[in-house]
Structures are given as C-alpha cells and as structure tokens.
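Notebook entry, structure prediction.
Reason for the run: the old model in the group folder had no record of what sequence produced it. Starting over properly, with the input documented here first.
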Amino acid sequence: MQSKWLIVIAILIWYFTRKIQAANALLVRYMLPSNIRISKGAIMWDQPVIITNPTGTPINLNRYYIQIALEDTPIGTAYDSLFTTLQAASDTTITANVVVPIDALLTSIPTLVNAGAQLDFKLTGNIIAEGLTVPVNTVIRVPIPKLFK
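New structure, fully documented this time:
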C-alpha cells in the first residue's frame, strides 16, 4: 500500500515539474498595435501578443496583467482572462486590450518633451499559466523622428 502512494507522489511530482518547466519557458513577443481609438476618456488599442511554448508539454493559460509605462511613468494597463490551452511546441496570439486614460497620458507630457531620440515603453506584469506566475518584463524602444532641425 505504501509503495502505491510513493508511485502516485512520484507521478504527481513529475507532472507538476513538467508544467513548471513549460510555464517558465514561455516566450512572449509583441506585434504592432492595431485598432487605435479614443473612447470613454482613454486611448485604447489592441496589442497582439504572441506566446510561444517551446517545450513538449501543453500548458493552460489562465490570465494576464500587464502595466505599460512611458519611461518610468505608468500610463496604462492590459488585463484579461484567457482560459486557453497552448499546445506543445506551438504558439498562440492573444489580443491584449490596452487602455491608457487621457489624464495618465497628460502626466507623461514632461517625459515626451524631454525625450531624446527614442522613447522607452516598459511592459511589466504577469501571465498566469497552470496557476504559476510567469513574469513579463520588456522594453520597447520607439525612435522619435526629429520634427525640427
């Protein structure tokens, strides 16, 4: 009887170890935003995010929360519940609905005025997969054209 419990425990450890490894191996890439609009006192857009599972283990994606900052000034968020399965050795594209309140954008005007040749958009947050938290920490550098020479 005791050996059956040891076998069950060993299988559970093996199973959860594979899920943890798959969650930690997720790759996150951002595509160009689309459907940019102004509504309800905010600038909104759809941000395609490609999540790749390079492992041989399928993984359940539950939800995400991403904070967007311009340089170090928080300007918006994107969050949603996913409840989708990312198959082994595949990728999926999710669409993050980004909301930037106009007042948050106004507080970032000094950052825009003092910006050099580029702006750094920082995306930080979490993707919840299999009950595990996968951190997101990305900087997207956007070059600024010189308007006045």
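Summary: The chain has one domain: 2-143.
The old model has been moved to the deprecated folder.
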